[in-house]
Write a structure and sequence with these properties.
The protein is of the alpha/beta class. The protein has four helices and seven strands; from the N terminus they run αβαβαβββββα. The chain has one domain.
Amino acid sequence: MSAPSGKQADIRYGGRDSVTGGGERDDWRTPPTLMADIYDRFKLDFDPCPYPRPKGWDGLKGDWHGRAFVNPPYGKETGAWIQKALGELIAGRIEIAVFLIHARTDTRWFQDLVLERAEELYFIRGRVAFVGPDGRGEPSPFPSLIAVLKPYVPTGFPKARSWVTRDPAQTKLEADACG
């Protein structure tokens, strides 16, 4: 099966494990505004974990291409998705992998893969309101970050920045959290 397209005209939103941590669903999607901002900023054209997933497609097994946006199912397989991206970068099948992942800086995958290989890290202000099956956004119970991986190993620590979303729903969530 050929890899799914991720072009801006037909964006598919990557499936997630439940943002509540129960893992009972994998249909949480990237907020459209945040996804569009990421696609625009990094000129992305491929999503190896689209939602809905095309029949027969497995992003961990298929070949990737182009400039990848990766919002993998959150959970124990996050490291496997990062390792897959690094393999695709080294093989020359992709130019860049931009991950939207939970900011679990204490995990082995973050310390050994993201911190060692990311060129840039963007810590997202507030909590991402992933879109549930009912079409409504629910803030995740954990912070998120954007990690930018390229085919070479950067020297020194990655550049770390803050990412402020322009999504009105996200802005409301931030305002509510501030009092």
